[in-house]
């Protein structure tokens, strides 16, 4: 999978909103972080538009994203925020532009649909991590990790190693493969579409927020029935925030749902990584090779994001 070129001081970062509406004060805070790191942000034309739960019309959101993908001066495309809407414009995204001129794409949550598309249609690694909103109010360590992946072909060990202290299921051992995935709901939506990459031989990364266990059960079941989990080598789970049974509902708890599905796969699985919607959202490169070590409880990237 192609590595985009590393970012250098003075490079331009394009800010896009292909999903939900953005908040100006969060954008301003995030821009200060990028400028302090020596980068030059450029806002998309319709960044502050709103159409209900979307950041403007589908056509304008797609045009803004494509304009950044096609501009050779833009070396990174960063989501302003998540929400919903990226999958609505998938058919209009110029996936070929990313293939012809690889650049960093960064974001999380609803960005997952685009991450998957860039891997399936463009063959380019991307960066799962804070959106611009999150960078503006992120912690120093979180920002440092994010910046390190952008600028260093092989970041230090302290950046490439993510603790995953929770062992899920009974299978142990050590497995290696490309890390793919993101937000569980968006991977579920992408299954059986042209925007879903093959997960065979991959280490699958999931995170989620505000979904009760029975819905997580349904999502995992659908992904499995779609055939997308065939050949997966392991699972590395990030934050699952507020994923608890609804009041007075009799349903399985999250841990049991995860053990059921992982047990069927028979692969090593670790959880508790600080990635996703939790209080820490450590960046990680999707499409890069890593080793999942059950004995030591960690996911270690053997490769970086950029060239």
TrEMBL record:
Keywords for this protein: Carboxypeptidase, Hydrolase, Protease, Serine protease
Catalytic residues, chain numbering: 109, 207, 277
UniProt-listed InterPro entries: Carboxypeptidase_A_C_sf, Class_I_gatase-like, LdcA_N, Peptidase_S66_N, Peptidase_S66C, S66_fam
Domain LD-carboxypeptidase C-terminal: 176-292
Domain LD-carboxypeptidase N-terminal intervals: 13-129
Single GO MF descriptor: carboxypeptidase activity
Gene3D superfamilies the UniProt entry points to: Class I glutamine amidotransferase-like (3.40.50.10740), LD-carboxypeptidase A C-terminal domain-like (3.50.30.60)
Matching CDD domains: Peptidase_S66
Span of the signal peptide: none
Keyword Ion transport: no
GO biological process: proteolysis
Domain of life: Bacteria
Family affiliation: Belongs to the peptidase S66 family.
Name the UniProt record assigns to this protein: LD-carboxypeptidase
Species name: Eiseniibacteriota bacterium
């Amino acid at each position: 999978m192609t590595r985009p070129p590393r970012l250098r001081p003075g490079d331009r970062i394009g800010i896009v909103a292909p999903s939900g509406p953005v908040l100006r004060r969060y954008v301003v805070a995030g821009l200060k972080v990028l400028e302090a790191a020596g980068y030059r942000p450029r806002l998309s034309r319709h960044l502050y538009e709103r159409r209900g739960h979307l950041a403007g019309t589908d056509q304008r959101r797609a045009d803004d994203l494509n304009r950044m993908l096609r501009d050779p001066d833009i070396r990174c495309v960063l989501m302003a925020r998540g929400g919903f809407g990226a999958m609505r414009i998938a058919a209009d995204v110029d996936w070929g532009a990313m293939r012809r001129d690889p650049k960093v794409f960064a974001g999380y949550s609803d960005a997952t649909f685009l991450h998957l598309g860039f891997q399936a249609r463009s063959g380019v690694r991307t960066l799962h991590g804070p959106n611009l909103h999150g960078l503006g109010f992120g912690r120093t360590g979180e920002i440092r990790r994010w910046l390190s992946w952008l600028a260093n072909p092989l970041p230090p060990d302290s950046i490439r190693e993510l603790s995953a202290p929770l062992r899920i299921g009974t299978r142990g051992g050590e497995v290696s493969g490309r890390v793919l995935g993101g937000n569980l709901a968006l991977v579920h939506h992408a299954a059986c579409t042209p925007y879903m990459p093959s997960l065979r031989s991959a280490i699958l990364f999931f995170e989620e927020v505000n979904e009760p266990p029975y819905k997580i059960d349904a999502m995992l079941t659908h992904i499995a029935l779609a055939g997308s989990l065939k050949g997966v080598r392991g699972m590395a789970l990030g934050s699952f925030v507020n994923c608890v049974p609804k009041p007075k509902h009799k349903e399985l708890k999250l841990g049991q749902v995860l053990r059921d599905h992982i047990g069927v796969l028979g692969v090593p699985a670790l959880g508790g990584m600080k990635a996703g919607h939790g209080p820490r959202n450590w960046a990680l490169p999707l499409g890069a090779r890593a080793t999942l070590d059950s004995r030591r409880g960690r996911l270690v990237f053997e490769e970086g994001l950029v060239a």
